[in-house]
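Support case: tryptophan complex. Customer-provided input:
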Amino acid sequence: MQEKQSIHGAWANRWIFILAATGSAVGLGNIWKFPYITGENGGGAFVLMYLFCILLVGVPIMMAEVFIGRRSRQSPINAMRDLAIESGRSPNWSLVGIMGVLAGFMIFSFYSVVAGWVLHYIALMGSGDMVGVGVEQAGEIFNGLLADWQTLLIWHTVFVVMVIAVVAGGVNKGLERATRIMMPALFVLLLVMLGYSMSTDGFAQGFDFLFHFDPSELSGEAVLVALGHAFFTLSLGMGSIMAYGSYMPKKAKIGSTVLTIAAMDTIVALIAGLAIFPIVFANSMDPGAGPGLMFVTLPVAFGQMPGGQIFGFLFFVLVGVAAWTSAISLIEPAAAFMVEKFGLKRLPACIILGLLVWGLGITCLGAFNFMSDFTLFGKNMFDLLDYATANIMLPLGGIFIAVFAGWFVKQHASKEELGLSDGVYKLWYVLVRFVAPIAVGIVFCLNL
Ligand code: TRP
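Agent response - structure generated as follows:
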């Protein structure tokens, strides 16, 4: 087969792909969400389930996404369609891509609100206003922010503009350039934070909370959350990684590349846990405090330490950068699709998308104030979009992708594209055909 090129561009080399995909994977999911859902679901047992889900379900599905993207060199909607046609299947597989684009909008809308909190905290920490705050005061400051819809709206708007500006620049001048600058900064900042957390009194207790396995703490709900989070944190189930895969060099090996990305993502989540829980325990806070966990615990800790103003500022910059490189990948599949389908230039396509997600995001930030009474299925908009995407749409998208790659794509196509040795290919094949769909199916059914 003649080698195809993407009309959108290509990553300069394998490492840029790894960094870009890691940039997509490492985000608020790792630093904000993972610690607080671990806290809500009891700690070690949950973490172990999450690790299983990453390895047995996440990695094989990520390989499937990358190879589908790279083989077709198109945005996920068209990639699913073309590969289905190549294997003599129904073009309606593109529906999986459409559901993905929708999920991307939904995730973006609450993601951008949380990223807005982060931007606000960059300013707060940098200003020195948080020096010496106590637990109660930090809680009041956070709740005060949630109640103040104008401030939330400003930061939400700033974040949408930041993301759209990068995506409008395209693969090389936008995504790749951002990756080259932001990812190294992210790693340096993370190491600084880990060093600090290891020096706190609560480190042993925090470590124990994360890694102490007590099976009695595992509920069916916790397993669903762990599975949903495995998809969320690896950016799977909606086409982000598929889109990034479509810009991946042909020579690069998919297996080792995907393992590297999954490993880096997992390490960052664990480091974030190790940075946050020691502080929680050292200050006798509640690990199950929910979405506010990071925003209440960390300012207290930074407020007490020498140089805390600088470190606190740097930490929130780190989270902001991580959120930025992730949010880019939530929009890229839709942007690439609009360019392919309607022949639009990047900029107008991105402006349209930006307005859509900005509008939907307002319903999420309103959930904390002017729309707090509005509920659907017993949840406010923020919780609803989070729950519907992480716990339903992403796992469902993941099953479809696994079933498609394992049962519908011709075996010679997946074999050729993945380029694995026979034994490893067989392992992947079993995981993607049976283990991943069945595991996701069981967890789903148990929770209905
Ligand atoms: N993985 C990112 C995080 O952990 C969020 C994200 C980016 C994402 N793209 C995605 C989640 C696609 C699900 C699907 O913060």
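The chain is about 80% helix and 0% strand.

Case will auto-close in a few days if no follow-up is received.
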